[in-house]
């Protein structure tokens, strides 16, 4: 299948940069809306879930990868994934250990069903609605799982945001080394890195935004969310122009 008809982007440096910034925005934006704007976790969850559904409906109507639509969904999923975990902890009293285990199992089930149905977990062939449905289900669980894992290490285990970010970042670096140097399976490497970029991004978001007296740098949720969203918009604009040029080149070659 021609890569131009794949509904998700190629895995490049831009992909990982935007993904990590999106995970950071998911953490800071959820806190900003729920606490700074005083909407509360429940109201924020309803609003953001509605926006996510709307963004997904647009995404599923597309026949190929469109940067604006795709990354909008990623940002929305990041926020909603954070809110799911926060609601379970703050409103229902579920422990971070339990949430981490449950979402790990849920993600494993999604992968098992996906593989049983499609015989592959590769993101290089997401060109049907069913495959994309599995893809987004997996993405949602990685964000919820990553939020719980990040909070578990940084807060419950009291290691702090900086050490938590360093730990998850180091594991991601090891996975990258295993892939490039020791030929770790590409699909396995991708999903391991994707899962871990969530707690890494969440820890970085908390490190940058939380007050100094709780281990953060005190830049605030507004500032960090604004800076990272601005950077994401700029990169998406660049990728959109790049894709347009690729489509024009492909059309002229036919």
TrEMBL record:
Alphabetized UniProt keyword annotations: Membrane, Transmembrane, Transmembrane helix
Transmembrane segments: 12-35, 41-58, 65-84, 96-117, 133-153, 159-180, 187-205, 217-239
Pfam families given in the database record: DUF347
Top-level taxon in the UniProt lineage: Bacteria
UniProt signal peptide: none
Phosphoprotein listed as a keyword: no
InterPro entries per UniProt: DUF347 (IPR007136)
Name of the protein in question: Membrane protein
Organism: Sulfuriferula nivalis
Organism phylogeny: Bacteria, Pseudomonadati, Pseudomonadota, Betaproteobacteria, Nitrosomonadales
């Amino acid at each position: 299948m021609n890569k131009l008809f794949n509904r998700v982007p190629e895995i490049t440096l831009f992909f990982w940069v935007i993904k990590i910034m999106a995970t950071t925005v998911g953490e800071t934006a959820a806190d900003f809306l729920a606490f700074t704007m005083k909407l509360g976790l429940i109201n924020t969850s309803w609003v953001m879930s509605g926006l996510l559904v709307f963004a997904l409906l647009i995404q599923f109507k597309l026949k190929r990868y469109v940067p604006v639509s795709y990354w909008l969904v990623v940002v929305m999923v990041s926020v909603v994934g954070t809110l799911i975990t926060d609601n379970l902890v703050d409103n229902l009293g579920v422990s971070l250990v339990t949430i981490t285990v449950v979402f790990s199992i849920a993600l494993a089930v999604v992968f098992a069903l996906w593989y049983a149905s499609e015989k592959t977990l590769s993101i290089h062939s997401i060109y049907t609605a069913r495959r994309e449905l599995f893809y987004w289900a997996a993405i949602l669980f990685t964000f919820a799982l990553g939020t719980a894992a990040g909070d578990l290490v940084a807060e419950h285990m009291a290691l702090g945001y900086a050490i938590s970010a360093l730990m998850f970042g180091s594991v991601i670096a090891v996975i990258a080394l295993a892939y490039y140097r020791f030929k770790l399976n590409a699909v396995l490497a991708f999903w391991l890195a994707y899962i871990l970029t969530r707690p890494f991004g969440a820890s970085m978001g908390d490190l940058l935004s939380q007050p100094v007296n709780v281990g953060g740098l005190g830049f605030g949720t507004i500032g960090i969310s604004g800076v990272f969203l601005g950077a994401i918009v700029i990169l998406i604009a660049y990728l959109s122009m790049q894709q347009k040029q690729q489509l024009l080149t492909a059309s002229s070659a036919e």
